[in-house]
Design goal:
Order of helices and strands of chain B: HHHHHHH
Distance between the termini of chain B: 36 Å
Number of helices of chain A: 8
Number of strands of chain A: 0
Largest interface: A-B, 113 and 119 residues
Oligomer: heterodimer
Strand content of chain A: under 5%
Shape of chain B: globular
Largest sheet of chain B: none
Radius of gyration of chain B: 19 Å
Helix content of chain A: over 70%
Radius of gyration of chain A: 18 Å
Structural class of chain B: mainly alpha
Number of helices of chain B: 7
Shape of chain A: globular
C-alpha cells in the first residue's frame, strides 16, 4: 500500500473516531491526531501528496463561498455596519496578539498570526499552507481557540444575562 | 440543486486555478472562495453544498496537516501553550466587550445573547448550535459570523502582505 493511501486510511479512522466522540471540527482534527499519534508511535509515514491539500482547499473554499447569501446580510439590517466595524477591530486585535505571541514564544509571526486569527480552523490552515507557517501548530492552536469559545460561550452568556 | 452544485464547484476550480496561475495571495482556498461567494451573493435562492463536500475537504486537509507534524512541532506547541492560551482568552474578552458595545448601542430589540454569540471568535456552525440550545436567534448568529468571514477573507491578502515583511513568514514562491 502506498504512503498516500495509508495516510488516508489513518485519516479516515481518525475522522470516524472524532465524529463518534463529537469532537468539534472532528473531520479535520481527527485525521490530524490519528496521523500524529501513529508517527510519534513509530509508524513510518511520509508527507502527504500536495494534491490532498490542493483539492481540500478548493472544496473548502467552494463550500464556504456557497454559504454566503444576500438574505442573511439583509437580515442584519442596522447591525451590518457596526458588525463590519467590530470585525475590523477583531482583525487588528488578532494581529497585535499574534505579534505579542511571536515575541514571547519561539513561534514565527506567521504561525502566531494564523493561530489567533478568528477565521475558522480549517480555513486558517488552508491559508497558512500558502506561507512558511507551521501547519501543525496553527491547526492545534485554532482547535484550542474554537473549542474554548464553544465551551465558554454558554457560561459567558449566563454571566451576562444574570 | 445538482446543476447549481456543479456550477459552484466549477467556479471554485477555475478561480483556484487562476489564483495559482497569477500567484495572488491566499492560494487555492481564496481563489475558490471568492468567485463562489460572489456567485452565491448574486443568485436568487442560493443553496449550500452538501455537507459531504465539507467533510471530504476537512479529511484531506486534516490528513495533509497531520503528515507535516513531527516531534519539533510538538515541542513548539508545548513551549508556547501558556502564552497562546492567554492570547486566546484575550481574544474572547475583546470579542465579548465588542458584542456588549454592539448590543447596547446598535442592536435595537435584538437580544444580548444573539449579539454576543454573533461576535465571539468561534465557528459559525458551533456557535449557531449553542445559540439554538440557549434560545438565541441562531440565524442571526450565523449571519453575523458570515460578515466576520467575509471581512477576514477580504482582509487576508493585505494581512499576507504585512506578513511578508517579517522574516520567516513570507509567502512561498511557487
Amino acid at each position: 500500500m502506498t504512503d498516500a493511501i495509508r495516510l488516508l486510511a489513518f485519516g479516515l479512522t481518525g475522522a470516524a473516531l472524532a465524529s463518534w466522540l463529537r469532537i468539534p471540527g472532528g473531520w479535520m482534527i481527527g485525521p490530524m491526531l490519528a496521523i500524529t499519534v501513529a508517527k510519534v508511535g513509530g509508524v513510518n509515514l511520509r508527507k502527504a501528496p500536495r494534491a490532498y491539500s490542493e483539492i481540500g482547499k478548493v472544496l473548502l473554499g467552494t463550500f464556504i463561498g456557497a454559504t454566503f447569501s444576500r438574505a442573511a446580510l439583509a437580515q442584519l439590517g442596522q447591525l451590518l455596519l457596526p458588525a463590519i466595524g467590530s470585525t475590523l477591530v477583531m482583525i487588528v486585535v488578532g494581529m497585535a496578539l499574534a505579534w505579542m505571541l511571536a515575541r514571547l514564544t519561539n513561534l514565527d509571526v506567521g504561525t502566531a498570526l494564523f493561530s489567533l486569527t478568528p477565521g475558522g480552523m480549517a480555513e486558517m490552515v488552508a491559508i497558512a499552507e500558502e506561507t512558511t507557517a507551521d501547519l501543525g501548530v496553527v491547526a492545534t492552536l485554532q482547535f484550542l481557540r474554537y473549542s474554548s469559545v464553544v465551551m465558554l460561550a454558554p457560561a459567558i452568556l449566563d454571566w451576562f444575562l444574570s | 440543486m445538482a446543476e447549481r452544485a456543479v456550477l459552484l464547484v466549477a467556479a471554485g476550480t477555475v478561480g483556484a486555478t487562476l489564483w495559482r496561475r497569477f500567484r495572488w495571495p491566499g492560494g487555492a482556498f481564496l481563489g475558490a472562495l471568492l468567485p463562489t461567494a460572489m456567485l452565491s451573493l448574486v443568485m436568487e435562492d442560493p443553496q449550500p453544498l452538501p455537507e459531504g463536500v465539507r467533510w471530504l475537504a476537512l479529511l484531506l486537509l486534516g490528513t495533509y496537516t497531520g503528515s507535516t507534524v513531527d516531534r519539533g512541532v510538538l515541542r513548539h506547541i508545548r513551549a508556547s501553550l501558556p502564552v497562546a492560551i492567554a492570547g486566546i482568552l484575550a481574544l474572547i474578552a475583546v470579542a465579548v466587550a465588542l458584542g456588549w458595545v454592539l448590543h447596547s448601542q446598535f442592536a435595537g430589540e435584538l437580544g444580548l445573547g444573539t449579539v454576543l454569540l454573533g461576535t465571539m471568535p468561534g465557528g459559525a456552525s458551533g456557535l449557531s448550535a449553542v445559540a439554538y440550545d440557549l434560545g438565541a436567534d441562531a440565524r442571526l448568529v450565523a449571519s453575523l459570523h458570515m460578515v466576520r468571514q467575509i471581512m477576514v477573507f477580504g482582509a487576508l491578502p493585505l494581512v499576507l502582505r504585512w506578513l511578508a515583511s517579517f522574516r520567516g513568514g513570507s509567502e512561498r514562491s511557487r
